[in-house]
Amino acid sequence: MLIEINGIEEYLNxxxxxxxxxxxxxxxxxxxxxxxxxEKVVQRIPAGNxxxxxxxxxxxxxxxxxxxxxxxxHIQIYNASENAKKAEYGYMTIDTTTGNLIFKPGTHFMKIxxxxxxxxxxxxxxxxxNNFWEGEFRW
Length: 139
Hints:
- The protein is built from four helices and four strands.
- The chain is an alpha+beta fold.
- Strands 1-2 form a two-stranded antiparallel sheet. It has a two-stranded antiparallel sheet with strand order 3-4.
- A hairpin with a 2-residue loop joins strand 1 and strand 2.
- The longest helix is centred in the first third of the chain and has 37 residues.
């Protein structure tokens, strides 16, 4: 007895294409999310003089590639500028009016941006998955 299922080859081909497309689209979406996060960070960088202009802090960010290791998938976003560290965590300086050593507190622009971004991330990923599924894999 032979049972024939119409459309099974088309279905399997769609599954194969979905699998191939998903990997590339996932990498694109991960990069897009990294840029959205960086946009939040840059908006929070305070105006001020950290021995150089604030613009140099904003322009010194680097977004690395999507990497998979034993901890999972991640993209490293960093700013090695000493000025960024001062703006984030604070720094010691000499008060020009009194000559005293004082601490200028940091604004924690990275920490606050990360907290905000984490709150939005689930929804962003769900929307992306839904859009990808609807666009790529229709019955």
